[in-house]
């Protein structure tokens, strides 16, 4: 027993390993398509819901980025088809269906696909092309519908009552069932090829949602939009609609309403037209005649404008204009040449040798005169300075004192005699203004102070 437990323990997986292996196995199952009813719904950033049938339920999760792409709002109790993969939430061991796509089941799925087709055709411009008006006067109407239903009878009855002159051409086609789209396309192609009608009506009477689906078939809708003739879509009754309503030039709520649209010119209007036909014809002829007169005048004017005389006049005017422009251009060029010649003469005159010599001679005279004036000014200034300095020197000359009766006595060594450098017996020389006197020192006595 102990050995058996030991072997089991050795083979045992951890919980995380077991859940991980199970999750890998589930993912290898690939994509699953599951149909059921939404029983619980919780929307946060992502969509958490349960999908159930009579016997089982499964938890589902759809990421927020995928939820935002849904063309409808999921609701509790709604039958849906979920496309996703199986997964095991390892942290809590919860099995989930990871939803990647979701469609409404049954009629809801068909409505969803119709909405997707409608958006795509709008984006391609199939429904937004320019709509053509229905002609007011119609001789022949083409009907694309079943030859056995009441639609054709109702249309003929309405046209007979309102305008019996309108001819009806039937292009029979199946209007319900799997073969209806191909049959409708064949009838449309035949009507387009013949082009014998003024307007086309494609439609059928009322019926179930599924009965009207052939008129929302993509090929039928695209072919309706390519109609070379104005076309009216009249499918079902007032609440009903088909995608051909958006592709056609006009939508009628019923086939009878379509018949009334194409018979806008009624029997009563036809009778009134016949009553007033002579006056209308006279008025019409007058309008036509006026148009022809105006056209004749326009043609005559165009003929005159294209005639040789007018063309010659135009050419003469153009030639005169060109000649005037040529003369103006020549005058401008001549003026510019004269101005340029004058400037060149001025520049050449600046380089003339005689003029250059004259300018140099004038400059030399000017500089000589300026130099003479400068020399005279400097000489005069020097003479004045010499006289000033001579006067100062004369004033400071010791010999000038002799002229006022003074004398200067020199010792034997030639220095000015003073009590300090002479003694009795020394020979002195006294210089007067105009003579020198030689004497001998007898004695030296100081002077009395006052």
From TrEMBL:
One of its GO terms (molecular function) is exodeoxyribonuclease VII activity. It is an enzyme of class 3 (hydrolase). InterPro entries: Exonuc_VII_L, Exonuc_VII_lsu_C, OB-fold_nuc-bd_dom. It holds the Pfam family Exonuc_VII_L. It is found in: Cytoplasm. Keywords: Cytoplasm, Exonuclease, Hydrolase, Nuclease. The keyword Cytoplasm applies. CDD domains: ExoVII_LU_OBF. One of its GO terms (biological process) is DNA catabolic process. GO terms for cellular component: cytoplasm; exodeoxyribonuclease VII complex. Residues 14-102 form the OB-fold nucleic acid binding domain. The keyword ATP-binding does not apply. Residues 129-438 form the Exonuclease VII large subunit C-terminal domain. Its EC number is 3.1.11.6. It catalyses: Exonucleolytic cleavage in either 5'- to 3'- or 3'- to 5'-direction to yield nucleoside 5'-phosphates. NCBIfam families: xseA (TIGR00237). Heterooligomer composed of large and small subunits. Belongs to the XseA family. Bidirectionally degrades single-stranded DNA into large acid-insoluble oligonucleotides, which are then degraded further into small acid-soluble oligonucleotides. HAMAP family: Exonuc_7_L (MF_00378). This is Exodeoxyribonuclease 7 large subunit. It comes from Candidatus Avisuccinivibrio stercorigallinarum.
């Amino acid at each position: 027993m102990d050995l058996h437990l030991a072997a089991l323990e050795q083979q045992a997986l951890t919980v995380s390993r077991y859940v991980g292996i199970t999750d890998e196995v589930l993912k290898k199952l690939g994509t699953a398509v599951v149909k059921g009813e939404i029983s619980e719904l919780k929307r946060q950033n992502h969509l958490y819901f349960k999908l159930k049938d009579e016997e089982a339920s499964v938890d589902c999760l759809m990421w927020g980025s995928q939820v935002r792409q849904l063309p409808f709002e999921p609701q509790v109790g709604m039958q849906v088809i979920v496309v996703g993969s199986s997964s095991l939430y390892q942290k809590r061991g919860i099995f989930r269906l990871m939803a990647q796509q979701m469609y409404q089941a049954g009629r809801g799925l068909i409505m969803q696909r119709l909405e997707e087709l409608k958006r795509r055709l709008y984006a391609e411009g199939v429904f937004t092309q320019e709509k053509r008006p229905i002609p007011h006067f119609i001789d022949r109407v083409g009907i694309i519908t079943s030859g056995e239903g009441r639609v054709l009878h109702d249309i003929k009855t309405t046209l007979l009552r309102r305008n019996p002159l309108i001819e009806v051409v039937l292009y029979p086609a199946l209007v319900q069932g799997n073969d209806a789209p191909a049959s409708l396309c064949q009838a449309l192609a035949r009507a387009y090829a013949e082009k014998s009608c003024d307007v086309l009506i494609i439609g059928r009477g009322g019926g179930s949602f599924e009965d009207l689906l052939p008129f929302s078939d993509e090929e039928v809708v695209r072919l309706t939009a390519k109609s070379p003739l104005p076309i009216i879509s009249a499918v079902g009754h007032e609440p009903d609609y088909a995608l051909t309503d958006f592709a056609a030039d006009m939508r009628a709520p019923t086939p009878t309403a379509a018949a009334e649209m194409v018979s806008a010119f009624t029997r009563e209007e036809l009778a009134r037209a016949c009553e007033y036909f002579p006056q209308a014809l006279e008025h019409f002829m007058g309008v036509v005649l006026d148009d022809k007169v105006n056209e004749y005048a326009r043609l005559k004017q165009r003929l005159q404008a294209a005639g040789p005389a007018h063309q010659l006049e135009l050419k003469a005017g153009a030639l005169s204009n060109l000649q005037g422009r040529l003369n103006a251009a020549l005058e401008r060029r001549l003026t510019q040449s004269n101005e340029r010649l004058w400037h060149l003469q001025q520049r050449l005159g600046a380089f003339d040798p005689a003029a250059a010599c004259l300018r140099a001679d004038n400059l030399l005279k000017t500089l000589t005169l300026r130099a003479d004036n400068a020399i005279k000014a400097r000489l005069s200034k020097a003479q004045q300075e010499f006289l000033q300095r001579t006067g100062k020197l004369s004033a400071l000359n010791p010999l000038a004192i002799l002229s006022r009766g003074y004398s200067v006595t020199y010792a034997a060594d030639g220095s000015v005699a003073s009590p300090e450098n002479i003694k009795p017996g020394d020979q002195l020389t006294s210089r007067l203004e105009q003579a020198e006197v030689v004497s001998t020192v007898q004695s030296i006595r100081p002077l009395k102070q006052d």
